[in-house]
Every structure is written in structure tokens, then in C-alpha cells.
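hey can u check if this looks right to u? its 174 residues, i copy pasted from the old doc so theres a chance i mangled smth
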Amino acid sequence: GHVAVELTALLEFLAQRDLVVDVAVPVDAPVVRRVRALAAQLAFHDIKAPLLGTNGWNSQDFARTADRTVDGATFVDGFFVDSPNPAVQESVQRYYKRFQSTPSLFTVQGYDAARVVIEGVRHGATSGEALHDFLMTQRNLPTLAGPASFGPDGTLHRPLFLLQVKQGKFVQLD
């Protein structure tokens, strides 16, 4: 309808100029469909623009675009089941052996949370306050993604997985 005509006009305008294109697509249920449609329109108008996104793109439906218009799309995620990292692969294999499925991001976050709490207890934390103090002072807390630490606001800072779509599959870039 009206939005498609406006998008086509905008893309035709951009195709005539050497401009950097930055398009934000909301992350919600139809995000895969929206990004794939945008990628197809960019390709149709011969606009070479990197697609940068969030972990909402981590879906095989997104990667398996028949015409490969999303090849090169890049995003970060908190976990990548196919990471070449040996610790990740070992963990995925153990989880699969036990539960006959692959772990989700939420599973890994729960595992990491338990692991850092156990680390605090092993270092002598016997109360919530002592555990808090321990966690806030450590710079190398063990997580599957690698060493992590808590910032002053209590946010966990840990490595993310930088992923890209290549030939219909996700690959880790870092």
C-alpha cells in the first residue's frame, strides 16, 4: 500500500546518491519478515548497505532467505550455539546429551548466574551482602562467553557473540 510506495520512492532516491543508509526496524514478532523485505528492496534498487541488527535476527528463518539478500547481515547475541569456542561446544554437547535439545540464551544466562554465585561462595561469601561485594569487585567472573564483570550500576558486562549471515548460515566473526 501507501508505505510500500513511499519506501520504493525513498530507495530510488537513495540509489541515485552515494549516501549511507541507516534503517531501524523494530524488534517484534514480524521482524524477520520486515528485514527480509527491506533487504530485498535494497538489492532491487542496487543499494549496497550493511544490515546491522540485534539478537532478534538470530532465527534460521532469517538466515535461510532463498535469494540471499540478507547475506552479510551482522548482529550480536548473548549466546551462539554453533560458536567454535571449545567451552561453548562442550557445554552445548553436555546439555544436549541430558535434555535432547540445544540450550537457549535464557538457559545460558541461568547457568552463568549460578556459576558466578558458586564462584562467590567458593571465595568465602556467606551472605547476600558478601556475595554482592565479591561480585562487584571481580573482573574475571566465569561465563560461557568468557570473563565477565559487573559495572557500577550492577549490569553484567560480558563478551557478546558477533554473528553474520553467510550463505544462509550464521557464522561467528570474533
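Helices lie at 2-15, 31-44, 60-63, 86-99, 105-122, 128-137.
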